[in-house]
Amino acid sequence: xxxxxxxxxxxxxxxxFFFTTATLGLLRLPDFYARLHATGKGDTLAxxxxxxxxxxxxxxxxxxxxxxxxxxxxxLAQPTATHAISRAAFRCQIQPWTVAKGREK
Amino acid sequence: MTRASDDVIIKALARLLxxxxxxxxxxxxxxxxxxxxxxFQGGVILAAGFVLLVVTHGLEQTRxxxxxxxxxxxxxxxxxxxxxxxxxxxxxxxxxxxxxxxxKILLVTPAEARSLGILGVEIGVALAxxxxxxxxxxxxxxxxxxxxxxxRAE
Amino acid sequence: xxxxxxxxxxxxCALVLLCxxxxxxxxxxxxxxxxxxxxxxxxxxxxxxxxxxYDRIDMFIDISMVYALLNFIGCVVLAKYLETTGxxxx
Lengths: 105, 154, 90
Hints:
The structure holds 3 protein chains of 3 kinds. By secondary structure, chain A is an all-alpha fold. Chain A contains 4 helices and no strands. Chain A has one domain. In chain A, helix 2 runs antiparallel to helix 3. Helices cover 71% and strands 0% of the residues of chain B. Chain B is built from 5 helices and no strands. Classes of the chains: A mainly alpha, B mainly alpha, C mainly alpha. At the A-C interface, helix 1, helix 2 and helix 3 of A face helix 1, helix 2 and helix 3 of C.
């Protein structure tokens, strides 16, 4: 087992952990904005960590350069897509969930 | 639906990503015979870039760069390139799309002529697919009403 | 090492199934959009893991790049559509 394999495993496990937390947030949080907050941030970080792990495993080549390019693209695009959806929800007058509202039910 | 988005974040990101999308589409077209992809896929990515432009910068801005009429002309040119290369092979004495026969006019070996012929056909397919996807998207997005009628988009 | 990537891929597929719950039963169309966006990002990583397992990553990387691009454009178009029509209650 090489050093780069260990680094790659660590990065992949960290990415998988953040994917799991993001999915749990998507399933368990009370309203739309909170769910989008969980996936928007958690998935972005998890994708970055997983892609870095794969790039480290593959070594220095054109393929890992492409993986880094995908990472940069996701780093820009994923928050923007989240922002677009949440903006659409805000424009449609969806009210955020509050603790008081949750107690009423 | 056809107005420009008033959100500066999405507009700025679309402006930033557009050249990379087009460059990647050209890469997919050019590398069609080494990696997955080819004319059809590259054309679809080009059309996706135009879709992003329409959604973020509005119909008016996109029409200035590529009108429906121009898209129709480009789709015809793409089909003409495809058919023309095929017919050229027929004229030079081979079967339809028999690229090896192109070596007589390209002055290269038959293997290289085959590669170049495939590249030419893929460029034609990419142009046709891009223009036709753009026309279909245009027709759906404007719900069949051309904004040229009353001079403003909505 | 391939074994490890295989396990991570299987775990990711289980997460996709969990997200599919939100995409299917989500109360409004916005929740469905969030679920589908989350599925898209996980699929990107699954494609790359498949490339590593089959040892053809130079092929799968192009597919995953197109997938990321189309996921982003689909999200933006869907958001624009919902914003314009204003019907999100179904």
